[in-house]
Write a structure and sequence with these properties.
Layout: H1 7-35, H2 46-51, H3 53-71, H4 78-91, H5 95-112, H6 119-145, E1 154-163, E2 168-175, E3 189-195, E4 201-210, E5 216-221, H7 228-234, E6 241-244, E7 260-265, H8 269-281, E8 288-294, H9 303-312, E9 316-322, E10 330-331, E11 346-350, H10 353-365, E12 373-376
Parallel strand pairs: 7-8, 7-11, 8-9, 9-10, 11-12
Antiparallel strand pairs: 1-2, 1-6, 2-5, 3-4, 3-6, 4-5
Helix pairs in contact: 1-3, 1-5, 1-6, 4-6, 5-6, 8-9
Length: 386
């Protein structure tokens, strides 16, 4: 927990550091990659660096963590830490790398705030950083230890590659060696590593849309803004070998008998489809409400799988929103104001960030407690303050 010595210093300087950290982090990354260019090969996303999203992620995580320590003495933001730790573990982040980040981050802070920083301020923010780092290291070590193997990357062979709606592709992978396979939980994701035309390796996380035994099934959208999906769509063929991580992600179906609401938009249907499939396979008697939004019916990547699974569940219903409505769908964008939400429901949410913010706010206004709203953010997590 944050010490009594550091708390007033952090409280007093948080507005300043928070206002400057968006400028500090580009300097940090310039220093980091200048000293360790190898970190761009198979770890940091080059596309996220170009867009500035990675800088926003770091700024958001540090500011949110410090704000929590000030506002909630004696506790840690467990949900935020868990989400970050799962992302880190899916990339193979190691304990020594936290020291590397600390070295270059605090050099950037000292440079940017040279006129105001004092040893006392530097010491207090160092404490914040290591409180966050130590908490993440502990969670990540537990995640690594829970896997069926101790390897970060294992080879998997592409067994099938099939179109899935407009501009999307579903890949089915089978193990390419005898490495023990960790069973994936519904809603989890894996990292996929590919080599780009310029020989740089890049990584992206994809939700597993089906938890079928030892295979891995995921669906990608070609125009997702990254560099990995185009390689998968255009260059990878059946029989090729891909390197993928063990499964990670804390947004999984919670045990119980209460109602479940699965709300998604676009390719965000992949984790909710996995949860829905697990309920259908189990013959669940839970009340299940599936809500999905798309631009057109043809663009719904997992339409067949999800509609089939809804039909298999006696207590499941589907509501669909289309920008170009057809077949009894709702017109326009999803709104929970049009939905009769089951009492005491748990909401699982995935899609573009504006969509998730909007639906989360509507869910809270409708009486669903924030603790029963579970959401997955892909790419850098810039929603940490929420």
């Amino acid at each position: 927990m944050l010490s009594d010595k550091s708390r007033p210093v952090i409280e007093a300087t948080l507005p300043l550091v928070g206002s400057r950290i968006g400028d500090i982090t580009p300097k940090f990354y310039a220093r980091l990659f200048g000293a360790h260019p190898e970190l761009l090969d198979g770890l940091f996303s080059r596309s996220n660096q170009r867009s500035g999203n990675q800088q926003q992620a770091l700024a958001g995580s540090i500011a949110a963590f410090a704000t929590h320590l000030v506002n909630n003495p004696g506790t840690l933001p467990e949900t935020v830490l868990s989400r970050i730790a799962h992302k880190h573990a899916s990339l193979g982040i190691t304990e020594p790398q936290y020291q590397v980040v600390y070295e270059h981050l605090f050099a950037a802070i000292a440079d940017d705030l040279a006129e105001v920083i004092t040893p006392e301020i530097a010491e207090a923010w160092t404490e914040v950083y290591w409180l966050m780092a130590d908490a993440l290291i502990k969670i990540e070590n537990g995640l690594y230890a829970s896997q069926a193997n101790d390897r970060m990357w294992t080879p998997w062979r592409v067994a099938a590659k099939t179109p899935a709606g407009t501009g999307a592709m579903t890949f089915v992978l089978e193990p390419a060696d005898d490495t023990p396979v960790t069973a994936a939980l519904p809603g989890q994701y894996v990292s996929v590593k590919v080599q780009l035309p310029d020989d740089l390796r890049q990584v992206r996380q994809y939700s597993l849309s089906d938890d079928a035994g030892t295979s891995r099934t995921f669906t990608t959208k070609l125009d997702d803004g990254g560099e990995v999906s185009p390689v998968l769509h255009n260059d990878v063929e059946v029989g090729d070998i891909l390197e993928i991580s063990n499964p990670y992600g804390e947004i999984t179906l919670k045990e119980g008998n209460g109602p479940v609401v699965l709300a998604s938009a676009g390719i965000g249907c992949t984790p909710t489809a996995s949860i829905l499939r697990s309920l259908a396979e189990a013959g669940s008697g839970r009340r299940v409400l599936v809500l999905h939004a798309e631009s057109t019916l043809d663009s719904w990547a997992l339409r067949g799988q999800m509609t089939d699974d809804v039909e298999r569940l006696e207590g499941a219903d589907l509501q669909l929103w289309l920008e170009e409505p057809q077949g009894g769908s709702n017109a326009g964008f999803m709104s929970l104001r049009e939905v009769d939400l089951p009492a005491d429901a748990s909401l699982y949410l995935c899609g573009p960030l504006p969509f998730m913010k909007h639906i989360r706010n509507e869910a809270i206004n409708a009486g669903i407690p924030a603790t029963k709203i579970h959401y997955e953010v892909f790419g850098p997590d810039i929603w940490l303050a929420n």
